[in-house]
Structure formats: C-alpha cells, structure tokens
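Because showing beats explaining, we think one record worth quoting, sequence and backbone structure tokens together, and here it is:
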Amino acid sequence: IPLTGPLRGVVVLLLVGFTWLLASALFGGEGSLSVRNIFTAELRPRRYKCGLSAPCPPKHLAFRLVSGAANVIGPKICLEDKMLMSSVKNNVGRGLNIALVNDVSSLLKFLRPLHEGTLVFVASFDDAATKMNEESRRLFEELGSTAVKELAFRDSWVFVGAKGIENKSPFEQRMKNSKSSNKYEGWPESLEMDGCIPLRPPLEG
C-alpha cells in the first residue's frame, strides 16, 4: 500500500530520527552519551568500596579479605577502597599477612603492643599455623578469634579483630585442609569475606 500525505511525512521523520540516534551511538557526538546510557545503565551494576554489593552505612568501614590460593596466588586486604596488601603491591608472603589500622620482627612483638581499638586484618597464604605457638594463638583469641585455636597446617583463614573487643568477632572464616574436600592438591580453596565494620574510638572521626 503506497504511503501518501501526512502518513508519509511521519514515516520519514521516524526514519531520520532513528538514523541520527544510530549514527550518534556508533560514531560519537553530543547525543551519543545519552543514547549509550539508555542501553547500558541497567547492565552496569553500581560499584561500591572494595567491590561490595551494597554501600556501608555511615561511620562504618568497608573491607574485603581474600586468603591466598594454595601457594601460588597471594592474599588481598582491601579497606575503604584502598588495597593495603596484595601480590600486585608485592607486600604479601607465605604465612600470616596482617594489616593494622590505627596507628615486623616476630609475630609476638607485632601483636603485644597494640593500642586499644586497633583493627587487625588477617589473611593466610600457604600455611599460617605451623609457626604459631600457644601465646600467639591466645593473642588472636583476645582479638576476637574463635578459629585460631584449631587452626592447622595449610588451613585457609581470614579474620578481622580488634584490640579490646568485648565479644567474639563476627568477621572470621576458616577452611580446613582436608584431602577429601581440598580444591587444590594439598590446599583448601581460597576464602573471601567482606562487610562493614562499625567505627569505634580512636578510629571514629
């Protein structure tokens, strides 16, 4: 059926408009950004600090801990969108990787003088348990750990504690080294934990 009169004019205007939008999207131009946004806004999930799926409430710290994978891929410690420790930063090693927020020789000299309210972030790599003695485990228990007492050879472990904590920390995961469930040959799978930590003095500003 041939198009005549006003109907033909409407069709021509629609074709011109669609052609302009398509050209803008493909080749840039003032309208390209808005056109792209129409099609991509719903496809791009919003990114929050340290890759969290939702923002932390006010006066909370966003964090993400990832333990090492076997003895190959190093751990990561992120706080408030700042990567404190990672293989890329070349500041991780086998055993315990610890970041303090508040303010390395042996582990005991590292943990004993902590100030009240200091946050302690721990991510294991390869084997974190072999060189730990009774006192070092007790110090981690005082920081809120419940898993450190049973931590064994090549277990995966991530933990956030605090000096002077009144209760046990809710931020802790342990994956036992077991031949029947290990993801890697001789090692359990890597652990990943994130969340929001409420600020306490002297961290609260």
Remarks:
- The chain has one domain: 49-198.
- The first strand starts at residue 60 and ends at 66.
